Each structure stands twice: as structure tokens, then as C-alpha cells.
Amino acid sequence: MIILQGFRKLTKIEVFLFKRKNLGSKLIQRCFCEENTMKDVDFENVPIEQIRNFSIIAHVDHGKSTLADRLLEFTGAIKQNTGQHQVLDKLQVEKERGITVKAQSASIVYSFKGKPYILNLIDTPGHVDFSSEVSRSLSVCQGVILLVDANDGVQAQTVANFYLAFGKDLTIIPVLNKIDLKQANPERVCHQLKNLFDIEAKDVLKISAKLGIGIKEVIEQIIEKLPHPKVDRHKPFQSLLYDSWYDKYRGALSLIYVNSGSAKVGDSISSCHTKKSYEIKTLSLLRPEEHSVDRIVAGQIGLLGCNMRNIKEAVVGDTLHVTSSPVGPLPGFQPPKSMVFAGIYPANLSEHTDLRKAIEKLTLNDSAVTVDIDTSPALGQGWRLGFLGLLHLEVFTQRLEQEHGTEAIITAPSVTYLIKLKATKETVKQGTNEIFINNPAVFPEHIRIEETHEPMVLGTIITPDSYLGPIMQLCQERRGVQKQAVNIDNDRVMLQYDLPLCEIVLDFHDSLKSISSGYASFDYEDNGFQLSSLVRMNILLNNVPCEELSTIVHSSKAQLVGRQMVLKLKELIPRQMIHIAVQATVNGKVLARENIKPYRKDVTAKLYGGDVTRRMKLLAQQAAGKKKMKMVANISVPRNTFIDFLKNDDFK
């Protein structure tokens, strides 16, 4: 084994792993060398040619955050052996789940061939729900590291991220991670990269981010292969605001990429979107902790504080410029589009104020969440929130509980539908006959509807061919239409399906993992709206509609869903003194019915004999009394019944 001066000594476990892989004679010690790091650098005067902006993109759990940790350690940005992992993942939910939810930046310095280079690293999420974070990050980069697991190979999100970077004309450095694993098969994965992306095996770097193998080569490839930013420091200041968060002491902080010129503390800047002006109070670089600077120049990524007291003023995608030198807006990026909607209500009505404050604070740091006030007669006043996906919803609710100590009721998720109404005087007056709805309670009457459209997604599934049959059957059950099937190698297939969003939003991913023993991966992208036969299903309790229990379903599944709903309600609604008929109806037609029997007092218990007519008379009086009670009584459905039903997704 080669021992180089300045490198850390290998642990016994690492030596054992190296010997097992037969790589001991070829590997150098892991990754920290003071000779290659520079502590004090004049950031303002570093030439543009010595700046690199790049992101790490990959599928979930392929080692992005671990690679980011090793890059920070190798360049001396953080100390080794501190026991901290996922340094850039700062949220508690990120550390618990082992996933990246929010993209994080860090500016690191590396000395290469006697010159200091500034490497602006952005660690991005890998789950499809947070693809908007990836897209936003790529808008300020000139290249990416495409990280692929040497054991699992190319996955669905790997394909999506590759084409996202390829579409932005970014330089791509392919890297195979986890080569230290016993099951790793780099040759097979390189063959997949060649078949899918036309990447040659000789261009693929092989590393182990966990053990620090090959980190030096990655950094040198970043410097040699990635282009420097195409910026001009002599033009007026112009910067792209691509992320923001809220600090309770300094207000809204803006993460900016400087496209031209420079700005210093004390300058007056203006927003192209809001037209408001601010004075720059603080400027800093993230290394990864904040490092204050007096001036920031073109090509750099920095954090700007200017006393924005409202996060809504920090519009992601906005362009900032010096007030005295106005410039045009930079080409931005598409704002995140909410795909999944759910109602959120306080578990206890007395906690409404606390929940409202918690939602406001979280949405300050997560601009992708949309909030509308909603009211339910059963659950009280609440909110209708829009999320990027089901994982985004789960993370948001987990943060509500962990960071703010609030308990909320989350209704079953739904999606947005497009309804085209028949032409009437009212629609002509409004100027449009198309409406978007995500709440079944506002679904129009069927006599007013001309067409209904549902959101579609283009789903990509990568699976071993042994599970191909069950997966195709699952997609057909979810009303999917196959678009493409490509053999990645001898063992794996990539499928593409047009799928309704409402069919995959709840349990599709779990079902896919179950039938494929966890080997299949799934990714999707928005594919617009498609004409569909949608109906509103109403739940009637003794012929009285219950708005909170209504739902929107496809007509082909209406009877099945209706049967499941009434069976569930029969279990949840408590028996009462009157007979209750639970019915599921569509357009006035009853599709399913269940009866809840009433409590019944034994009025004949006191009889000890005599003619049977005495018994019949008492039973007739009881029946007449119950009939009269049924005519005037209101069915009392407890709040907990609504909670249990709305949180249950068995019928979706």
C-alpha cells in the first residue's frame, strides 16, 4: 500500500475492504491533504477562469451527500473524524430519513497546479418530488457530477436528471460510487451508461465516497473538464435569485448567482419583479458556514441579506440589480407546480392559532407549498395545501410536528382537475368556461359539465426483466398506456407509461416496490391534462348528502370505490337510535349501499304471558316511534369518524 505524507492513516476496516477488493496496491490513503487546500484566499480577485460551479445529481441513496462530505473534507472546508455525516443536510427530517430535501450550497477552495480554484458545490435532492430543487440548482451551474451506484446501476431518477442537465447543455462528469461494495459491478453499470447515454467506459470515474477513494480525481476532473462561468465583471451588477429562506433576526435571505458586475455592502439594489429597492446589509459565502465578505463579484454564488421582512418579496427566479444601473431580467426557470393537495386541520380546535403560525413559518422556508384557507363543517377551519408530491407532504407534516410541536389532521391527498363547463350567460360573462378544482366539494353538477380532464404524468420504470409481467399488469390496472420499452442490458428494462396522476399519488410506489422486491425504481414528469370521464361520488346518510365525504373518481372505478367507501363508513359510524342507510351515489344513481342497524330496546321484556296481540301491539308502537324519530332526527356523526375516514386511503 502506498503511504503519502500528509494523508490520514487507513483504519483496519478500510484495509480489510481494500484487500477484499484486491485494490490495496493501487489505492492511496484517504483524502485529506493540507498541501492541496488553501485557507486564506482573496475571493474578490480570483480570476473568472479559476471558478467552477457544479451540482451533484443522482437517484435516491446513491451517495450525493456522502460525496459532498468527502469533497468538503478533502479541501479542508470541514474537519475530518468529527462524527458528523450529511453536513449539508441541516434539517432534522433529512438526517432521520437519510435523504436530501433542500438543495444546499458550499464554496470550497482547492489549489491545483499552483493556482487557487473556487469550487461552488450544490448538493441536490434525489427524489422526484424535489426535482424542482434540482432544476433550480442547474440554472446557475456550468456542469454536473452524475453519480451512479456501482451496485444498483442506472435508476429512473438517474435518467431524468441526466436529460435535465443535457437539456441545459451542461458538461456531465459520470462517476460510479460504492465500488468498495462486495456486490459492485462497475463493468455492468458502465455498459448501461453506454447504452442509455452514450458515455464511454474510459470517461467514467470509479470512487467510494464512504471510504474516500478517488476523491482527488473527481476534483481534478471538475477543474479540467468543466467550463468556467461565462460572465463579465465590467458590466453593471446583475444576479439571479435562485433560493431563499427566512431568518428570524435578519429577515429573508437570498442565495444569488452573480451573472455580471459586482456589489458591495451598502449598495442599493432593486428587484426586477417587485420593483422594490433595498440596501445590502450583509454579504457572505457559504463554506459551508457563512463567511462574511464586503464584496461579491460575477461568477460567484453568495448569500445576500437586505432586510427583506417578507419571504414573498424574495421571489425565486427574480433578477436583482443596482438601483442606479437598471438591467433586464435574466432568463429564469419554471416555478414549482403543486401536484398533490391535502386539507390540514387542527386536531384540537383550540390549537388553530398555533397550527396557523407553524404553517406560516414553514412556508417561509419552503416556497413550493401553496396555501389556501379552507373550511369544513365537520373539522372546522383549516387550510388546503399544495405539495410537489406525497413525500413532500410527509416531510412537511413531519416538520410541523418536530419543529413546532403541532398535531394536525391530514386528509387524503387529491390532485387538480380541469373542468370545461357548458356555455352559459355566466361563463360568457366571466370570459372562460374552464375551471381548475382540487376539492371535491366544489365539483360542479354534471348537467353543467361539458368535458372533464385529469392530469397525466409520463412515468419511467427501470426494473429487472424477471418482474416485467407483474409491473405491466400493475400499470394497466392504474389505467396506464405503454409508450416505450427499452432493454438497458441483458437483465434490466426501462418502461415508459402515460399514467393518471391520481392513480399513482398514493400507493403506486409502494405497490411497485412490493411486487419487484424493491429492485424497481420509478420517476415521473408532468405530461399535461387529458380528456377523461370523471364523476363526483356523493355519500348520503339517510338521503342527506355529506359534503366532507365526497370524492372525485373515474367512472370505470366508481362502483368499486363506492362499495369500499360504504363498507368503511359502516365500520366507522357508531350505531344510533335510528336506522341509518349509507349510500354512494353518482349523478343521482345509487351504486352501493350499507345499513347500520339501530339500537333497540326490548319493550316486550316485561310481558310474562297472555295473548300474542299484546306483544305485537308493543312492537308496532316502537316501530311507529322510531319512524317518527327518523323523520325529525339528525344523524350525529362524531368528529373522530370524519378524521378516521379522511385519513384512510384504502378506497383511493
Descriptive report:
It is a single chain. The chain is an alpha+beta fold and 652 residues long. It folds into five domains: 12-225, Rossmann fold, CATH 3.40.50.300; 238-322, Translation factors (Elongation Factor Tu (Ef-tu), domain 3, Beta Barrel); 340-400, Alpha-Beta Plaits (2-Layer Sandwich), CATH 3.30.70.870; 417-532, Alpha-Beta Plaits (2-Layer Sandwich), CATH 3.30.70; 535-647, Alpha-Beta Plaits (2-Layer Sandwich). 26% of the residues lie in helices and 31% in strands. It has 16 helices and 31 strands. Strands 11-10-16-7-8-15-12-13 form an eight-stranded antiparallel sheet, with helices on one face. A six-stranded mixed sheet has the order 2-3-1-4-5-6, with helices on both faces. Strand 10 and strand 11 (277-279) form a beta hairpin. The protein is elongated. The two termini are 59 Å apart. Residues 1-10, 15-38 and 648-652 have low confidence and may be disordered. One of its GO terms (biological process) is translation. InterPro entries: EF-4, EFG_III/V, EFG_V-like, G_TR_CS, LepA_C_sf, LepA_CTD, LepA_IV, P-loop_NTPase. It is found in: Mitochondrion inner membrane. GO terms for molecular function: GTP binding; GTPase activity; ribosome binding. Promotes mitochondrial protein synthesis. May act as a fidelity factor of the translation reaction, by catalyzing a one-codon backward translocation of tRNAs on improperly translocated ribosomes. Binds to mitochondrial ribosomes in a GTP-dependent manner.
